[in-house]
Amino acid sequence: MKAKSVLAAVLALSALAGCGGAPGGGDEDKAAATPSATAEAKPDISKAGNVTLRVWDQNVRGGQNAEIEELNKQFQAKYPNVTIERTKKSFEDLLKTVKLAASGDDAPDVIQVNQGRGTMGEIVKAGLLRPVDDYAKVYDWESRYSSTLLDLNRFSSDGAEFGSGELYGLSQMGEIVGVFYNKDKVTTPPTTLTEFEASLQQAKDAGDTPIMFGNLEKWPGIHNFESVLGQTADKQAIRDFVFAREGASFDNPEFQAGATKIKEWVDKGYFNKDFNGTDYDPAWQSFAKGDSWYLIAGTWVTADLAEQMGDKVGFMLMPGQDPNAPVSLGGEDLPFTISSASKVPDVAAAYIDFLTDANAAKVLVDTNNLPAMKGAPTPSTGVSVEVAQAWQKLNDADGVIPYLDYTTPTFYDDISSAIQELLAGKQSPTEFTAGVQEAYDKWAESR
Amino acid sequence: MAVAAPLEAASREGSPGERPPGEPRLVGYLYLLPAFVVFAGFVLYPLYRAAYISLWDWDGLTAGTWAGFDNYAEVFTDEDLRAAFVHALILLLFYAVLPLLIGLALAGVMARARVRGLAFFRAVLFLPQVVAMVVVALMWKMIYQPTDGALNRFLGWFGIEGRSWLGDFNLALPSVGLVGTYVYFGLAMVLLTAGVQKIPTSLYDAARVDGAGPFREFLAVTLPGLRGEIAVALTLTTIYALRNFDLVYITTSGGPGNATSVPAFQVFSRAFESGQVGSAAAVGITLTVIIFIISLGINRIAERST
Fold this sequence. Notes:
The complex is a heterodimer. By secondary structure, chain A is an alpha/beta fold. In chain A, 45% of the residues lie in helices and 13% in strands. The longest helix of chain A is centred in the last third of the chain and has 18 residues, at 429-446. Chain B is built from 14 helices and 2 strands. Chain B: The chain crosses the membrane at residues 29-48, 84-107, 119-140, 171-197, 218-242, 277-298.
């Protein structure tokens, strides 16, 4: 009796569930979204009627939140018929919910979507984002950014090719992962890798911690490793690998040299001893307290460091072979994209235009952010000046290399774990590059 | 209504005498219906969907492709996934076995001595269980901090060099496990002390008359008397251990390397981070089956020996 009714229940349920269809299969008509109308002239938003624009962004920190709030206020003042309904989520929260949000029936009109194959690639493949090339032409967006930065927001419409194809959005802020230094300890900042290593040894000999590093969260290791990698490998080779271009590889002598170099730094004691067990935030906080000479970190900590250290903190690009050809991990923050389900793409595009124009660049500088746009005003005081100059120099030299974790959907996991193992001596540099290559090949075969 | 009519008919026929005593009336199932609908909608159907999705290779957004049992094969062949299940079994020791032993020891002591302010102590020891897991995890993350964490500073007083508790490949898993012990020993203790109070004092008197020492008394009276409670405590803590996610997510994100990765963390990371929803479902279903088998085993053993 019992067994029979359980069986009946299971049968009834499978009938209910409508066995047979592939999960997600009903949405096939959505794939490769093409805009229903192509914009040919700047739309007049004030005539768009009463519109509610739903925006999901990740600007939760002090200066970033201030910047968006100010621009939202200005946009709504300019177009009183538009109401912005803003949802803010931290980077990590956004990363976990963005796919669900974008695929829902009432997806937000404007969404900040992380670059790379893990997020943007998947969403583009599902046809959930509207390409913005037509608006780019109308608003002349391409003149605002360097081509390297625009490429980061490009995908082919089937999601297969990254770094080329359609443009899907625009970013506001530039990012550099560079080297912050304590001016009390470092009197003349090193300009080449050799000088940098000499300075690290000097710090070590003085009994200080050369570089403060917190890698408990796993991702900071990517930044430290890739900063070094940029100095041992050709920048084009790194870009080709991240964009998965023909013939690119990870397991090659140049990449092995990067792995060997950073392991050497670990062995020589150039990092604090327990970096794999130290949190990211306490790490930069102890650098701010003067516990180390250097910190390899992204420009997103600039405002916090400036607040705690005043004029004692300096910023430089990772020193390399040639001071005139700097290479640095960096890029831009998450691009604002338009959902293909949005009923008001014109308003959404006007909003994105407003967030990235000359006025926005000024607001960004005033709120201590680093604008990604060309010709932005330079800040007047503090470490922000050095950051802005470094950004200028890096872009003039076309030295930006993109984050390795953009490479495949699982690459964040693959490489962050592997780096922890490399640094702890669980894997040799050659085992490391071979292992990462294997994870990449597994994806490349199935793409 | 079509269902209800024959049921009513059956109940009318079922007057006393025609039906063997104790045989439930069919109408009884009708009373089950509301609860069953909720259960089916929120447990059985999602379970069925998960099992169904686990047979597909699906990224969560575009149409999936049929994978058959490939995802399950991966659970057993993929080194990282296999390691995750091994870690979960090791955590069983810290989440279930250790709390039970501590709980038993405390219960054994409380069975003999009437402690003043017992309720107070019990409440204090039970406290970790009440605090949200996220808070506990953040707190322990601070305690385990290598440079100025409480644990290393404490060890420093005795001249012992501190360790990188969560960053060391060998120490990370036990360190996470001990947080589990801290959380769940209170639960085991409360269950077991309640059980102890149920054991008739005459049994203890008899044991003492027969000349049993405290240890003998524990083995001969307390332990057998607590069999039911032990089964409950073990079942609960085992389930917590195997489905443990929040603690690992907050303290180590599965690191260093993959040293603390557990199945539930893999489910999350595959489903929400790397777009391998089919594989995530397969891991989830495998985990469900393992939990089911282990708790069934525990209850079988407990029942057999009564």
